[in-house]
Amino acid sequence: MRRCVLAAIAVLCTAPASFAYRPFDGTDAAVAERGVLEIELGPAGLLRIGPDRFLVTPALIANLGFAARWELVLEGRQHLLLGSAPRDEPRSRLVDTALNVLRACCGMAPFKVGRDRA
Q1: pLDDT in tens, 83-96
Q2: Distance of CA 52 to the CA centre of its chain
Q3: 64: how many CB neighbours lie within 10 A of its CB?
């Protein structure tokens, strides 16, 4: 066992450098062409948080190519409360929202230059 652990540490410490970019969750890795609007819809589903149950409407991701190798990405998802809701709380809420600007660099995959908003 000790030899396996030492071997694993040796492999990890001697591995060459690697390059990576943020994972794409529900979107493609390509940047939309200039003047092109891409609309992506995710699946609908059910969500349970404690005693509350929500219908999760399809996630919407809109990609707009506004310049060569640049795109504006707007995304979000809506939760609709199933059952009765307290008087002072809305039955629906917009969650997982983000506005990002993406750029393709040097012919490689785009990287994120915007900031997520919740």
Answers
A1: 877 788 888 888 88
A2: 24
A3: 16
